[in-house]
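re: ur question from earlier - yeah i can do the single chain one, its not a big deal. heres the input i used so u can compare w yours
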Amino acid sequence: MEVNSTVVNEDKPTGTSGKSAEFSLSDRQRENARMFDRIAPRYDFLNRLLSLRRDVAWRRCLANHLPAGKNLAVLDVATGTADLLISLSRNSDRVTFGLGLDLAPEMLRLGGKKLAAQHPDHSLGLVLGDGADMPFPDNCFDVVTIGFGIRNFSDVTGGLREFRRVLKPGGRLLVLEFSLPANRLMYHAYMTYFRYVLPMVGTILSGDNTAYRYLNRSVEGFPYGDEFCRMIAAAGFTDVKITPLTFGVASIYRGDKPSV
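and the output i got, formated as tokens:
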């Protein structure tokens, strides 16, 4: 598969073709990129610690929702350090090509190191770019995934439509995102952890006093469950489904681009 992109290796972004790598960002996007770059060195460690390693199981579970077919080309938006991209490749031999796209250069640099060590065959690559305005032609990926990143979009519906644009007819969108438990007891326990324990531990271990406070605010303010399913359907996807994970603290959302 040939895709025009700005590929990032373990050292720095190299080479451009197709749409220019000089993309314009909103103030919110710039601040988010800077925030994630600040916490990049501790990002993977904190994900494992603060989720009690459930994040590993959630990413592994996403592979069970891949569409039928062989030689799948996957685009992972807001890829960060490429954990989801690596997990999909590891847990499905049907993923033979993958790109991860992100706005945060330091996150991509660290992700590039992981890819170089684990995928020296270059079947996976990284791209510096904006998920709301991607440097890819229409109809070029079998699967678009995004893990814990859709809530950072200033225009969620516009982002979903952009994902649909780059999917092939019959392709599938898979969104892994935090949600809120339906069980009242679990909800209160989770919110206590999310509002107080997680920001405190994240701040101490990352050295950043804003990133993990932003996390709980962004999750609480994001539509989830049936409301988000309706947004996916409104963006042009069909057969929209939701799979709750770990008592509903995270969910996998799935939608297909119509074949015609």
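The helical segments are 27-50, 54-62, 83-91, 105-118, 156-166, 184-206, 211-220, 226-234. not sure if urs matches, ping me
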